Amino acid sequence: MDLAQGRMRLIEVTLAANAPAVANHLTLDELHLPDSVRVVAVVRSGQPLVPSAPMHFLEHDHVILITRADAAQECASAFVA
């Protein structure tokens, strides 16, 4: 979903077992996402969670990100295998 006249993008990613964040048991803090990317929510087993630095990611998590439109590909490396 594009926001701010197309300058921002809201993205939802469902994590697979081989997603780097899952396979490497990384926390949100350990992902070292660029400043242009923010995790705004994680939906786990149907429950929305507010992300925090020590949060680990699990297979089937729905991760909701906001990013600048020109940086959308930068967030993919942590969440898509």
Task: Please outline the helices and strands.
Elements: E1 2-3, E2 8-14, H1 20-23, H2 28-31, E3 37-44, E4 47-49, E5 62-68, H3 76-79
Antiparallel strand pairs: 1-2, 2-5, 3-4, 3-5
Explain this structure.
The protein has 81 residues and is an alpha+beta fold. The protein is 15% helix and 33% strand. The protein contains three helices and five strands; from the N terminus they run ββααβββα. The chain is globular and about 35 Å long. A five-stranded antiparallel beta sheet has the order 1-2-5-3-4, with no helix packed on it. The protein has a single domain (2-79), classed as Alpha-Beta Plaits (2-Layer Sandwich), CATH 3.30.70.1450. The model has no long low-confidence stretch (mean pLDDT 90). The protein has helices at residues 20-23, 28-31, 76-79, and strands at 2-3, 8-14, 37-44, 47-49, 62-68.
**Are there runs of 5+ residues with pLDDT below 50, and where?**
none
Order of helices and strands: EEHHEEEH
The residue-averaged pLDDT reads 90
Counted by DSSP, the helix tally is: 3
Percent of residues in helices comes to: 10-25%
> What overall geometry do the principal axes of the alpha carbons give?
globular
Enumerate the strands of the largest sheet in spatial order, edge to edge or round the barrel: 1-2-5-3-4
Tell me the fraction of residues in β-strands, as a range: 25-35%
* CATH classification class: Alpha Beta
End-to-end gap: 22 Å
Count of beta strands: 5
CATH superfamily, please? Regulator of K+ conductance, C-terminal domain
Radius of gyration of CA atoms, rounded to a whole number: 12 Å
CATH architectural type: 2-Layer Sandwich
Find the structural class using helix and strand composition: alpha+beta
When the domains are counted, the total is 1
The CATH topology turns out to be Alpha-Beta Plaits
Main β-sheet: number of strands, strand sense, barrel status?
A: 5 strands, antiparallel
